[in-house]
Design goal:
Length: 102
């Protein structure tokens, strides 16, 4: 997730991005938060991470960090999202486990 302060945008925003596709130079001046940065077993899980773990929501582990960060960014921007907000937030996430075998 990246945080763009009001200096670089008209309003403060938190955006989930595909880290594999974002050139590192495009992150200049932005705060970058990874799934490890929002919580861990040692420091305590973020509520989004905890809910996925408690509900056995993890698949193979490739898609879960992206899903966590999409929800985290959504909740940073909209603390009470609608179902439509969630559908839009998760449009870029898919599970490789569901489309092919490993």
């Amino acid at each position: 997730m990246i945080y763009a302060p009001p200096i670089t945008t008209l309003t403060e925003s938190h955006l989930a991005i595909n880290a594999c596709l974002a050139p590192v130079a495009s992150m200049h001046g932005l705060a970058v938060t990874t799934v490890e940065g929002i919580g861990s077993i040692k420091t305590g899980l973020h509520p989004v991470q905890k809910r996925i773990a408690e509900a056995h929501g993890s698949q193979c582990g490739f898609c879960t960090p992206g899903i966590v960060m999409s929800m985290y960014a959504l909740l940073r921007n909209l603390p009470k999202p609608t179902m439509k907000d969630m559908e839009i937030a998760f449009q870029g996430n898919f599970s490789k486990s569901q489309v092919c075998s490993h």
